[in-house]
């Protein structure tokens, strides 16, 4: 049975990425060796790294003065790398979900943290507005998409003259971004780019070197900039797969086209939810709704049917729609590689389920 | 042409590992999804993680009270994680090569470092003996195999009552180890285990919690112990491949059998080098020679033929034998998955080359 993959991450990748990766596991770039066992210093892999970096720059229109890094360790490691490199005295953070909470916790080890806005009071089901970023902060950090709660900030925030740092783990490449507004953008690869194991970091070079503390070598962005992400052995296969996805993105028309498709998919599902008798979205303000992760639940009178619907959908090849325990209900992740046909299959399953109950 | 893969890392993996990984990239465990796009929380991947952990414990006879972790970030990240977690006041380090130098550099950010022995005076071409580990050190750190220089400590060192920490990145699973003597063993997976992107850490649980400093969450071993290496998204595919290698190791007869084969391969190559007119080993003391990485050069009178021999070997499918720039000449890495036939092919190439020059 064909599967519709709605996992929140690791999550669906393009068939182009999967097919080319499978081939490279057998024979990488005609070397006669597997991508699993080839040196990261081989000219064939160095070419992969260079093309991947160049394509990120092209797709996101990264200006001069920025470096694109592919690191190991996951976005969670960035929660401490950012303050290690940038927090001299005080940082401002926006608290919009579990990952923001985790990022704030790490920053507090390094200096004063001003949480300028939070939606914790309503289980993070909205994006706070109307807050002020203190202009003496070293940087302002926010999470553009909250995977668990299904909220998203779909524009570049303005923090005045304060450096901007953004965790774009779950929505990078889903819209054009004005990179020049940011000092650090980071994203775990396992949503919109590659299998788990790599993290992409886009960093403005002149934002570095302004803190006094000693920084462990591996946690210092300058180490990886200087060595083109080859200071130590990088996660070779995840970077190879990332390159395949980036090529596919370019061929599909780039991030503007991806955004158009993502909006169409999200609209289809949100419309089905909003017009339904049985389901309701957990994020009420439409402007705050994520186009990557759609969170919804059964209305109170149908609550006991949630488990049954997960099984009903699974019988139709729909996997990964169980909501995170912090929200409950369902979460359908609509990452770039998910075809609209999968959203249609989910909407049909919802409609059929409603008709039969 | 069949390739003989002598890369120092990432390096040759068993055909069992490669074939099963290629299949899982297409369909993982009958899920209908690729291992690249399946949730780390899926029951199928949780089973992979559990079996991999159990097999490490079985193969290395890890006693109770130890945790086996699969982390991202590479062994280089361990260079700071070890002192973060264990260095309260002073640590002792042995300096036997580039990676030891890097580990020492990181430890110095955290406290006093006593370099108790070094072979830097002879470009690390021997293992220092007869040194004393200060009994007031928090731990003693050494590198069991020096990939770049071809030296190896093929027994468990004794540091008295001082905690023992060992970087076994390039020789783990090549001999039985008495894990009970160590507090931390770590190893980048990309030599004897898996593709790049995962690091295995074996840690004695009661060695932790004795330092006062705050530890960033991702760098605290206790975080990963508590969450069974699932605090954040782990490097899914590298761990899947690691499991395949571990299964293959068990089927081959375990580390005792692997050691026997590794010794036979190394003996074959060292004998060819030592009996040759043209080549010579860079490590003179036979007791210090690595069975994983065999470093050799052309004798001074033939020095200008080194480049020619690399090409001569490449024409016979022999790849990855160019020595690291710190040593020059050649390095043949004979990791567990390398068949003795590849060593025979290299020895034949050496003999033919000598005959024709």
UniProtKB/TrEMBL annotation, chains A, B:
Pfam families cross-referenced by the UniProt entry: Aminotran_5
Chain positions recorded as pyridoxal 5'-phosphate binding sites: 75-76, 99, 147, 167, 190, 232-233
Alphabetical UniProt keywords: Amino-acid biosynthesis, Aminotransferase, Cytoplasm, Pyridoxal phosphate, Pyridoxine biosynthesis, Serine biosynthesis, Transferase
Listed GO biological process terms: L-serine biosynthetic process; pyridoxine biosynthetic process
Cofactor(s) named in the record: pyridoxal 5'-phosphate
Domain of life: Bacteria
Residues bearing the modification N6-(pyridoxal phosphate)lysine: 191
HAMAP family attached to this UniProt entry: SerC_aminotrans_5
Name assigned to this protein: Phosphoserine aminotransferase
Gene: serC
């Amino acid at each position: 049975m064909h599967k519709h993959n709605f996992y929140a991450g690791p999550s669906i990748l393009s068939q182009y990425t999967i097919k080319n990766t499978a081939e490279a596991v057998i024979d990488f770039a005609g070397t006669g060796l597997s991508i699993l066992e080839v040196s990261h210093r081989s000219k064939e892999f160095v070419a992969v790294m260079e093309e991947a970096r160049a394509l990120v720059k092209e797709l996101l229109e990264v200006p001069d003065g920025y470096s694109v890094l592919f690191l190991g360790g996951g976005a969670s490691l960035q929660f401490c790398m950012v303050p290690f490199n940038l927090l001299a005295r005080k940082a401002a953070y926006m608290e919009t979900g579990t990952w923001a909470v985790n990022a704030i916790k790490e920053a507090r080890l390094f200096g004063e943290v001003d949480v300028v806005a939070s939606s914790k009071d309503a289980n993070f089901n909205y994006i706070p507005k109307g807050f002020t970023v203190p202009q003496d902060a070293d940087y302002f950090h926010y999470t553009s998409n909250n995977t668990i709660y299904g909220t998203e900030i779909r524009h570049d925030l303005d923090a005045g003259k304060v450096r901007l740092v953004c965790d774009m783990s779950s929505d990078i490449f889903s819209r054009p971004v004005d990179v020049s507004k940011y000092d650090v953008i980071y994203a775990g690869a396992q949503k919109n780019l590659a299998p788990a194991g790599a993290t992409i970091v886009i960093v403005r070079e002149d934002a570095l070197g302004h803190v006094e503390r000693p920084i462990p070598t591996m946690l210092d962005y300058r180490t990886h900039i200087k060595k083109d992400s080859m200071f130590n052995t990088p996660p070779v296969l995840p970077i190879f797969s990332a390159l395949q996805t980036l090529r596919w993105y370019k061929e599909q028309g780039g991030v503007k086209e991806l955004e158009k498709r993502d909006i169409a998919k999200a609209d289809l599902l949100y419309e089905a939810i909003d017009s339904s008798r049985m389901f309701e979205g957990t994020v009420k303000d439409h402007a705050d709704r994520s186009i990557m992760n759609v969170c919804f639940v059964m209305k109170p009178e149908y609550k006991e049917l949630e488990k049954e619907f997960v099984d009903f959908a699974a019988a139709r090849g729909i996997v990964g729609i169980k909501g995170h325990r912090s929200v409950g209900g369902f979460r359908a992740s609509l990452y770039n590689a998910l075809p609209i046909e999968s959203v249609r299959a989910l909407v049909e399953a919802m409609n059929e389920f409603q008709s039969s109950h």
